[in-house]
Design goal:
alpha+beta; Helix Hairpins; Heat Shock Protein 90; 3 domains; five-stranded mixed beta sheet; four-stranded antiparallel beta sheet; 14 helices; 55% helix
Length: 512
């Protein structure tokens, strides 16, 4: 896949996901506003019904006092059982109707007689008589109401709010009306004057907040039908209003979870795309390196064979020996490169076909050091070993584990810009065998240390331009160590050296 195509795909995915997020956020915001607006309407309606009912009860109380002390006050328990403001008013009107009826309940009822003649008991005369009685009763009721209103308006101007309101009654009225309107959140309320001075507070077993969010406070004027100089206001505070709005949006949780899932898939897809692109580049580099590495020994062998066939070249023993040595060395070099390529097959299998045998690791490493020491000393280096592991018996694949040790030692030799000092050591820790290979080479940077075990990854060699390879050696080492149920660690500093440590279980602690 071309780089341009990848970027077009990524930009398209980003724009699509950004649009999806924008639509989802707008949907969430609209739902939150609808829930909050509905809650605000329910609360404001409840507060208005509360103060209206308080004002009606006060008016009825004054009316009862006007009617010679007879009690016609409509209790809040009766009125709160109604389902609407209209029914509350109906209850008050019914009470006023009782007043009018009471004033005439002792009056004698006229008898109605049908007569074809003229006289006192005709239908027409009876109708006029009843109309006159009702007119008198209405006039009397109107006089009583006017007197009650006059007393009310005259007396409330100088009264304190505590004299006009029964706070215990107000607590019950407010709580019941809020429940009837579907508002069940915990709340507390205050009565304040125009300057905001506290007159009364009902805490309702809720802790008082010092810094109250303005959106959580609802205000309603007490006695809204009166124009007074000492106006007071009912303020109701809902501390958990925001939690209520969020909890009311639980239906949106699956949508949010789906958005997070899509985002995760999107990020993983981008990571996989870039890794595949990087792996493809590494494979291309591998093919180029492999072609070059295989072409050089083949060309040398071909040239040597041509020299043997050329009649002009002398066939002296020295010449034949030289040509045969060249063919032998280049054949070994070619075989080594082919072996490196064949090691790739190990990475294509989930489980490598290793053949495990019980072996003494100290003896195996001693043989490897003996065979490798010639290469080190030929370049002016030194190799030393301290095989101190007392329990060196482990279950290993001899061929592949030998390749692991050899690869690490060979890397130490290749990546050294001075006389090599190579130290091999073994020891035991808690039923595990540890093998360290330490050199004084060019070292590995911190960033490269995180990736040196990746397939096809090669560390920059700085001024060393003669280091050839495919980036498979350490990846092969890591895989073989993992197959032996072990771990490998690296410690390195630039221009100081590198230390690899292999940890494998001993036979006593090994479980297949």
């Amino acid at each position: 896949m071309k780089k341009r195509t990848i970027w077009i795909l990524i930009v398209s995915m980003i724009l699509t996901f950004a649009g999806l997020i924008a639509v989802q956020l707008r949907y969430v915001r609209i739902n939150a506003e609808m829930i909050e607006n509905q809650f605000n309407e329910n609360v404001q309606r409840s507060l208005y019904q509360t103060v209206t009912l308080v004002e009606e009860n006060e008016a009825l109380e004054y009316l009862a006092q006007t009617l010679d002390g007879e009690d016609y006050t409509v209790g809040h328990n009766q009125l709160l059982n109604q389902k609407s403001k209209r029914s509350n008013w109906k209850s008050n009107i019914d009470s006023l109707a009782n007043v009018s009826a009471g004033s005439i309940k002792n009056e004698p009822r006229p008898s109605i007689r049908l007569s074809t003649g003229h006289g006192k008991y005709t239908i027409e005369e009876t109708s006029r008589y009843l109309q006159e009685k009702f007119r008198q009763n209405f006039s009397r009721s109107k006089t009583i109401l006017d007197q009650a209103v006059f007393r009310l308006l005259k007396g409330v101007e100088n009264k304190e709010i505590s004299e006009r309101i029964n706070f215990d009654e107000l607590n019950g009225i407010l709580g019941t009306i809020l429940n009837n309107n579907g508002v069940s959140l915990p709340y507390y309320y205050t009565i304040v004057d125009k300057q905001g001075k506290l007159i009364y507070r009902y805490q309702n077993n809720i802790p008082i907040e010092d810094d109250v969010d303005h959106d959580n406070v609802y205000t309603q004027k007490m006695f809204p039908f009166e124009e007074l100089s000492n106006e007071t206001y009912l303020q109701v505070i809902f501390p958990k209003k925001q939690n209520y709005i969020l909890s009311s949006m639980n239906l949106l949780l699956p949508s949010v979870a789906l958005m997070l899932l899509i985002l995760t898939i999107f990020i993983l897809a981008i990571i996989i795309i870039f890794r595949q692109k990087q792996l493809n580049n590494m494979k291309n580099d591998f093919v180029n390196n492999m072609t070059h590495e295989l072409k050089t020994p083949i060309s040398t062998i071909s040239l040597a064979s041509q020299m043997l066939q050329d009649p002009g070249v002398g066939k002296t023993p020295e010449t034949l020996k030289y040509i045969s040595n060249v063919i032998r060395d280049e054949t070994k070099r070619l075989s080594f490169q082919v072996e490196k390529v064949l090691q790739m097959a190990v990475f294509e299998r989930e489980k490598s076909p290793l053949k495990f045998h019980e072996m003494h690791i100290n003896g195996l490493i001693s043989d490897i050091v003996g065979n490798f020491s010639l290469k080190v000393t030929s370049k002016g280096g030194q190799i030393s070993s301290r095989l101190n592991a007392l329990n060196d018996y482990a279950l290993i694949d001899e061929v592949h584990f030998t390749n692991v040790i050899f690869n690490l030692m060979d890397n130490a030799l290749k990546y050294c810009d001075k006389a090599l000092l190579l130290n091999i050591e073994t020891w035991n820790e808690k039923d595990h065998l540890l093998i360290s290979i330490e050199d004084n080479g060019i070292g590995i940077s911190k960033d490269d240390q995180k990736r040196i075990f990746e397939k096809f990854y090669r560390v920059s060699t700085g001024n060393l331009h003669n280091v050839k390879g495919f980036g498979l050696g350490l990846a092969y080492v890591k895989k073989i160590v993992d197959e032996h149920k072990g771990t490998i660690k690296v410690e390195s500093e630039l221009n100081i050296g590198t230390k690899f440590t292999i940890i494998i279980p001993t036979l006593k602690n090994y479980e297949l």
